[in-house]
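Intended use. Records such as the Alpha/beta hydrolase entry shown here are meant for training and evaluating sequence-to-structure methods. They are not intended to support clinical decisions.
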Amino acid sequence: MDLLIDDLVKNQKIDGKNLTIPGYFIRSTAPINIEDDKLKVDETLPTIDDVIDHLYQNSQSQTEELGLVIQIHGYNTGVKDGQKDYVREDWEQVCKYLNQQDNALKDRKSSFVYLGYRWSSESVPSSLKNAFNSLPSLLQFLLYSGLAITAIGILLLFLFSYSWFGILILAGLCVASFVGSLFFLRIIVYFRDEYRARYYAVPDLIEFIRQLDQGLIERYTQHFLSSQAFLYDEKQAKKQAKEEWDKKRIKLTFIGHSMGGFITTEVVRVLSDVFDQKSIGNVKNLNKQPSSNIGRVFSLGRLILVSPDIPVNTILSGRTNFLRSSLRRFEEAYLFSSEGDVALRLASTAASYFSFPASTRTQGYRLGNVTVNLPDKNVYGIVNLEQIKQRLSANNQLFVSKKKFDHLLKYLGVKVLNKQEERNLLQNKKDPESLVPKSEDPESIADLFTYFDCTEYQDKTDYPGRDGKTINVLICPNQKSPLKLWQYIRLLKAFFDSFNNSSTGIDVHGGYFHGYFSKLIIYRLAFVGFEGLLDSLILEQPKEFDLIAPPDLQEKLNISGELNTVEKHKIALEYFSWICEQKTIQVAASSERYYVDVLNEPRKEVRDAFLSQQNNES
């Protein structure tokens, strides 16, 4: 394989104790430049067999759910020879957090393995020397010609003072600037990283998962062949191994940050069986409900996109796209976004101008900039909680009338700088730059996500020099949505300060992993899902989040242990919404989460009803 594997924590032990959730660092050997490509041998332990061993041993334990959580980083995260790999250091801290700090995870029985996948991203700026030396001959000619024409024009203007020589200078500058623009696009490495993500990162991770699948089948096959109780030939043993894994599959969960979200969805799209009858549908029946099973061993669990570098059009378009085909297969899906993410607003939307097939500028906005858009900006917590509850008919049936159905796009928008109000994703169809699709989406796939708008999120962080202080995590102090141009300029400075570990720095693109509560949400959703998040939160008192609950809520928490599961989940959901409200996080929750994780309706039946109901309404 083209991957190297190492322990995130040395020997998978902390203070001499085995990790509850073992962590591995998976690194692609794909080169930054193809001239650097050479065979790299994994001379250190562990190897992929160690990962397989952990997964197999977990399958032999009495656990309700087996899982493999894969976290993928984004653009501009390269590491040069001799320098620290900050991505690896961050994931090492995540592994320690999972095993030492999060009470809901550290004491669980061994059932999960955590992988941090490093693909061959490059850091800004790219090598200036390589960028100049690799200029094609025509561009070099244009650059030198433009500079020469400019120099001659300046000289003639100085000698003869004729104003028309200014035209010569302008022509030379235009030619040189054209090449300079291409040179600039090269050194910011966005397009180079996008190429490596698509053609290196995706195939490497696919092959790794395929090898895990094969290795786990072989492990069970060896078990049956060596069994004293039964006599198997190899063919029978492989068949029995597949049947055993079908009974209890390993759930694949992905945490994709920035461009890592694109890698995740591409990986799932390729791994999925495109000839699965449930994924095809036809012109008369748009109800596509493919299985979550991947290969012979895995199934898709949770998809968590954090500030994803994916076009917002992917949750709007009625056409097939890479997110749509992936999303239907996951059991749960979550999106964390912020209006103040200038990294996406600048780099990604500028790149979309060159590469995304749109005739208006707004279509180039990214999912990571989607916000919860409400007339009253001061509403926080789960903003559509009451609407979800009202969807239940009198006899508690899943099927309800079109009148009561509440699409999530109604609550979502994107802030446009030259507009006073945000663009709502279900309004302003007459606006020439509206984000609303010309035709309705028959599946309304956007309703499968639960959206966390963290623009105004306030919490304690691990930012340098601010430990223990409650601050804005993703925007500057005293800023509020909607943000103005001058506020984005201030945010950009704070973002650059964060690279130098300044006490004024704000990680506008990755701050979700620095806020205490947002980090808790992300990793609990990944490892135990929404239901597990609710079950764990109700066991933690408000003071553990530096909060004081109102008397009526505190009373409900005190008696929750005496209630049945559904009633307990209802209180937990109210508690979760209240915490988000106190942390100034806006949440637009998928109705599917309420039916499955609060009311404990069967997951498959809810998904079938959910999608078919949308089709019937379209």
